[in-house]
Amino acid sequence: MSEERYWKERARIEQGHTRYREKLREEGKLFVRDRLKLLLDPGSPFQEDWLFARNTEEDTPADGVVTGVGTVGGRAVCIMANDYTVKAGSWGEKTVQKIVRIQEKALRLGVPLLYLVDAAGGRISEQIKIFPGRFHAGRIFYNEVQLSGVVPQVCILFGPSPAGSAYLPALTDLVIMVEGKASMFVGSPRMVEMAIGEKTTLEDLGGARMHCEVSGCGDVLAASDEDAIELAKRYLALVPGSFREKPAAADAVDAKPGRSIDQIVPYDQRKYFDMYEVIDRVIDAESWFEIKRLFAAEIIVGLARIGGRVVGIVANQPKVKGGVLFPDSADKAARFIWLCNAFNIPLVYLADVSGFMVGTKVERAGIIRHGAKMIFATSQATVPKISVTIRKCYGAGLYAMCGPAFEPDAAVVLPQGQIAIMGPEPAVNAVYYNKIMELPESERVAYVKLKREEYAADVDIYKLASEMLVDDIVPGSQLRDELIKRLTYAASKTLEFPPRRNGVFPV
User: How far is 394 from 222, CA to CA, in rounded Å?
Assistant: First the structure.
């Protein structure tokens, strides 16, 4: 009789509230346990804990959250997954306890933690049991910070994550949002209208596309639940299980065929090219995983493999705003650099940058403070770092993109490259402006042309190489092989940031 009761009770809890399952299907969303089936390796066991939480209550099976340990990509992971059929996935007393405990387990086991979020926030009716206490909801966010940089934390946002619970995705390493379904916001559209009189929609206020394009809170935009789960699995395959490990190597795959880098990158500094083409020529085909593609597109960041080794790529994109660095692009790069450094992922910088943006708008937006953040992150990174000047590297852009002063394991430059405080045109104008204005107008063009040629000769890349200011000049056709070789030699690097409690981040 007792075993019969066990199986009956277990089946009741596992199916959630069946009357809401049809609504999920209509919305194009998967039931929580169907999501888990797609995420976990086929045929692998899922060790669920605390399934019987609140089992004496009919309307709160498992208190609306599934927690346990499973296998993804042949590796153990801890999982927390909201069940939207139970009170819209909202947080109750045992929900919070289960999330806190699975976080503690991830820390003890030293394995990645996945948050499959689809929740309406905390239950006001249970606020005394979930909100103010030492081991209540705030502990979830506290634990996320303790786990940060220790094990990978990935959030797949399938639905809402409102109010205080919005900080759960915000504190993870990677946020994948399902377009048209996922959302996060501090105050709902109704609350916004009541508080400040602003009328808005859920999508405009906190929708997936908005966060992936505008706020930067979302890292990857997914087309569906299935797509989001596949993206999470791809990401996990590129990162180690914890900070104590290195990313798993794989068999090398040739780069994607196409035009050579020498054909892609023009010598004329005023002509644009597509940095994605350069990336395709140096990484293993089909290994690219981009982060924040839709946000601050003037800089590109993502994980890939080069010769089978996982690397993090930071690259300027001259096709967007000339590749100039703005506050958002500096933030985007800094966070990615910190991520790679936390999990032993070597960094490859591909530079074509005129520097940081100028003007009253960006100064008032804190361009100096945000730019300092990127320089701080680059300075702090102790993983292997290789700096490649693809074409130009001017001003503080050289510093942000790991120039020679920032301890790269190699600073190499293409023959098209040019490194200087600024380009010939603005430099000549800045230094010789008064002299130019004194000349007869008929002589100015020739004088400016002469001074620009002198300036270009002074910063000629072969002259810099002669002074040992760069380590090597590498033709574009040889860049991939050069990176493979240098990454191999740098793999044994052991360097730690000088001991301290913490640096004072320029945020």
Answer: 36
Distance CA(432)–CA(443), nearest Å, equals 14
Question: Residues 393, 418: contact at Cβ < 8 Å?
Answer: yes
C-alpha–C-alpha distance, residues 482 and 455, integer Å: 30
The two tokens of residue 202 are: 């859920």
The amino acid at residue 434 is N
Note the pTM of the prediction, 2 decimals.
0.94
Q: Is 116 helix (H, G, I), strand (E, B) or coil?
A: strand
Q: Do residues 203 and 219 make contact, with C-beta atoms less than 8 angstroms apart? A: no
Residues 464-503: b if buried by 16+ CB within 10 A, e if exposed: bbeeeebbeebebeebbebbbebbeebeeeeeeeeeeeee
The whole-angstrom separation of Cα 280 and Cα 302 is 12
Angle of helix 367-380 relative to helix 327-342, nearest 10 degrees, comes to: 20
- Angle between helical axes of 479-490 and 275-282 (0-180°, round to 10): 60
Distance CA 361, CA 67 (A): 47
Q: In what order do the strands lie in the sheet with 113-117?
A: 47-49, 65-72, 75-82, 113-117, 153-157, 174-178, 220-222
Assigned token pair, 482: 């050069």
Report the relative pairing of strands 65-72 and 75-82 from DSSP bridges: antiparallel
- Whole-number Å distance between alpha carbons of 40 and 233: 9
pLDDT digits (tens, 9 = 90+) for 391-429: 999 999 999 999 999 999 999 999 999 999 988 888 888
What domains does the chain contain, in order, with CATH numbers?
Answer: 2-236 (3.90.226.10), 261-421+460-490 (3.90.226.10)
Q: What is the largest CA-CA distance in the chain?
A: 106
Long-range interactions of 126-133: CB distance < 8 A, separation 24+: 126/92, 126/93, 129/92, 129/93, 130/91, 130/92, 130/93, 130/95, 130/96
Three-state secondary structure of 44-106: CCCEEECCCCCCCCCCCHHHHEEEEEEEECCEEEEEEEECCCCHHHCECHHHHHHHHHHHHHH
**Tens of pLDDT along 81-132?**
999 999 998 999 999 999 999 999 999 999 999 999 999 989 999 999 999 9
Task: Identify the CA nearest to 459 among candidates 409, 401, 389.
Answer: 389
